[in-house]
Write a structure and sequence with these properties.
mainly beta, about 70% strand, nine-stranded antiparallel sheet, three-stranded antiparallel sheet
Length: about 110
């Protein structure tokens, strides 16, 4: 996965999550990212709606330094691959909290 940190730098790392499907509803566990610079980091996702092979979801979580972080994600399935794009948008005004960050990449079964 590629992690674009506040529009400043792109970091590569491995990603992992668990997806459970019930009809057109998908439940994503935490998205775990691991790379040499940030180490192990995780982000709460939640529920998404599946239409055909594509999905979209939104949630929010409380951050210790950036108040509430709004999370949106979308993607698609293709065979054993899942293409995933996650946007993290902090609402806090503290230094480093004004810019959104993005994660994108393909995860396989």
């Amino acid at each position: 996965m590629i992690f674009n940190l506040a529009g400043l730098a792109e970091l590569r790392g491995t990603g992992r999550t668990t997806v459970t499907q019930n009809g057109n509803s998908l439940d994503f566990s935490r998205l775990e990212i691991n790379n040499a610079v940030l180490g192990a980091t995780s982000y709460q996702l939640g529920n998404a709606t599946l239409v055909g092979q594509t999905f979209t979801g939104a949630s929010a979580y409380n951050s210790a330094g950036c108040d509430v972080v709004n999370v949106t994600w979308d993607g698609r399935f293709s065979g054993s691959l899942m293409n995933l794009h996650v946007t993290l948008s902090p609402t806090g005004r503290a230094s480093g909290c004004q810019t959104k960050s993005e994660l994108r990449g393909e995860l396989s079964k």
